[in-house]
Inverse folding.
């Protein structure tokens, strides 16, 4: 098992990696650690590069997601009325009630289709445009940097980081964020509907909901953390592969293939071991969550039946009665019915599921917000030499074209003690080409 091997152990087994490749990998790690310390930007700054039209689409998407979330509790109300409709004593009333509920279901279907279409289209459009602008500005900023910047940072990691960050931003601000708003809204409206129909049962079942939410939240958080760890390991492995292919001649001349393969394998083993470890924990948590969920439903059915029985014993109008002429009198609408109990149970049941499913969306939004902060920090970088800025520098009226270097000393920033030029003198006359 090589997942826990230290670098020196890898060198012993696979051979040492050339110093050039090691230096580049360390630079990538340093730059990655530095960027991770960036503080997330405020919510108002997240969309600073979006146009007013994009912000209008965002508001429309949030409104559509809210309506879409409210549609699920509304469907549960219809379902409860269907159950009560089947218990009506008059056949004609049963048919009329069920037909009305069927039409309402059709209307809710069209309503959900419209709201979810608007929700998905708006969030995806805004996220796509925002990612495009960030990627464009990010790339332009990189092109404006001088050579010293690329000496201090890993070129392979810069390209991989640009693509990875923008994909995470688009993923976190897009459809996932809209779904998270929709699901959390469904939870809030579901609790309100449950309290309205049977508040006693709602309070009892709601005591179990935090446990289920905590388990689902832990599962989602664990999955997100594992994905981040795996992504870091795979990113480092990809950086090593990119550097190796880019400097394959140097690598081959120094016979460093074995060492690079060893380091690449260690990083892959780390990602694999992390995935295996969290998969078992995730399985246990999902099993516990299933037990809590079905136990909560059983508790709701038992207590709901007890409430209906108590209502029937306490109030005569909560029982079916007949008049002297034999006409059936149905229970009063103020009494707790089977439909009320099922509305309450399913509202809390689906509400807790919705809140648990919303957690990954909010986690993706949080991660995207962090990536935006890193991207904004890099976009704000100012290069001492900007090749795209034509306002700086002196414009000479008369240019002879002769160049002369006197006693030039130069060393790369990452290797200041190793001078490439020591007292170099060079004269290039006008009109002469030097390579």
């Amino acid at each position: 098992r090589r997942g826990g091997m230290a670098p020196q152990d890898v060198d012993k087994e696979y051979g040492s990696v050339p110093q050039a490749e090691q230096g580049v990998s360390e630079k990538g790690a340093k730059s990655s650690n530095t960027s991770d310390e960036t503080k997330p930007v405020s919510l108002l700054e997240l969309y600073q590069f979006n146009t007013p039209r994009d912000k209008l689409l965002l508001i429309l998407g949030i409104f559509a997601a809210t309506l879409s979330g409210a549609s699920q509790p509304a469907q549960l109300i219809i379902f409860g009325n269907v159950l009560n409709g089947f218990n009506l004593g008059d056949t004609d009333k049963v048919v009329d009630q069920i037909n009305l509920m069927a039409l309402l279901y059709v209307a809710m279907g069209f309503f959900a289709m419209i709201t979810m279409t608007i929700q998905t289209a708006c969030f995806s459009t805004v996220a796509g445009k925002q990612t495009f602008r960030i990627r464009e500005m990010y790339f332009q900023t990189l092109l404006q940097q001088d050579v010293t910047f690329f000496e201090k940072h890993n070129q392979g990691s810069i390209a991989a980081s640009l693509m990875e960050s923008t994909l995470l931003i688009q993923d976190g601000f897009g459809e996932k964020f809209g779904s998270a708003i929709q699901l959390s809204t469904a939870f809030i409206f579901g609790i309100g509907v449950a309290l309205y129909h049977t508040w006693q049962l709602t309070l009892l079942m709601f005591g179990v909901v935090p446990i289920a939410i905590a388990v689902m939240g832990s599962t989602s958080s664990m999955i997100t953390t594992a994905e981040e760890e795996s992504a870091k390991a795979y990113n480092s492995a990809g950086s090593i592969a990119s550097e190796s292919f880019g400097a394959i001649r140097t690598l081959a001349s120094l016979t460093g293939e074995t060492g690079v393969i060893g380091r690449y394998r260690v990083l892959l083993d780390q990602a694999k071991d992390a995935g295996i470890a969290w998969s078992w924990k995730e399985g246990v948590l999902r099993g516990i969550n299933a037990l809590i969920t079905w136990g909560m439903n059983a508790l709701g059915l038992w207590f709901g039946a007890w409430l209906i029985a108590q209502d029937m014993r306490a109030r005569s109008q909560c029982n079916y009665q007949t008049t002297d002429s034999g006409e059936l009198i149905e229970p009063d609408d103020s009494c707790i019915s089977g439909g009320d109990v099922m509305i309450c149970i399913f509202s809390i049941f689906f509400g807790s599921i919705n809140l648990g499913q919303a957690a990954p969306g909010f986690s993706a939004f949080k991660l995207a917000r962090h990536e935006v902060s890193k991207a904004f920090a890099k976009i704000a970088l100012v290069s001492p030499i900007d090749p795209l800025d034509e306002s700086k520098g002196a414009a000479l009226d008369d240019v002879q074209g002769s160049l002369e270097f006197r006693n030039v000393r130069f060393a790369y920033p990452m290797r200041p003690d190793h001078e490439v030029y020591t007292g170099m003198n060079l004269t290039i006359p006008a009109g002469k080409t030097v390579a």
About this structure: The chain is about 70% helix and 5% strand. The chain has a mean pLDDT of 79. Residues 370 and 385 are 29 Å apart (CA to CA).
